[in-house]
Design brief:
single chain; 8 strands; 6-stranded parallel β-sheet; alpha/beta; globular; 12 helices; about 15% strand
Length: about 325
Amino acid sequence: MAEPFGWPPGAFTGIGSLPGTDPAEAIRLVLGEVTELPYLPELPARGVGADMIGRAAAALVDLPVEYLVHGWTLASHPGRDLGRAKDHLERDLDQLTELGQGLPRLKLQLAGPLTMAASLELPNLHKVLTDRGAMRDLAGSLAEGARQLVAQVELRLPGCAVVLQLDEPALPAVLSGRVPTPSGYGTVRALPGPQAVPLLAQVLDAVPPGRRVVHCCAPGLDWSVLREAGADAISIDASLITDGQLDAVGELVDGGGSLWLGVVPGTDAELDQASVRQQVRTLWRKLGFEPSELARSVVLTPACGLAGASSGYVRRSMAVLRDASRASLDEA
């Protein structure tokens, strides 16, 4: 029977960002340590254009942006910093092409349409989120950019199946009307869930079913919006799952979805593999599923990106995640 997801049971992975500025070094680290579901790392320490929003801006099609004092802004012509963002992405892809031949699968990360709409500004300095037409244009541009990026990676790495992760840290704030206006004196009105679903679905559709992931590291996640948009997996900091959300988590898994659990901190901390394993088992027992289902349904990750961590901590966290994931396979 074919596996339901684009990754094998017992896989672990990273959220995306790593410390440092050398893409070759970062890619070698990921390919050497995260073998079941490697990913193209992001290195925001390189500066403007290498950040999460800059990476997604570099993928936009026919929607130029520029970086101004107040942040990324839609523009009539591409700005200098967008050129830097595109250069960062191209260099990363060149290194991936050199080092990643023979990979069966790879995960790519892009900021999702709701977080982009909450982050980008219009030329009049209002958020894109305030203009429904601009939001649709942004989602369409991002969807086409994601398709082109996936196609480019699959062309560079023959036989490699791409998993797409949309990073949506702003999603709870967008849906609840908590995104601040640029002035800081107010908030943008809430985007109803039924309007958010097609925007997310359009970008997730860049890859086939079974390879669609949405990550959110903010509290108050609306699980139903992500499921309705077609997410196969939902990635979340395990510490944010409250007892009140257990039903939503259970519905995800019971409905054939995958739960990506962030179980190690994103910055340097004491790590204990036994504690991580116990944390995962405790949640699984609360959900009421059999231990044998754990490896198929759960992917272990850091709680968020690791850009703020030390290189030694990054390696230790990968080792802890690998050992905990193998333990889940032993119980299958």
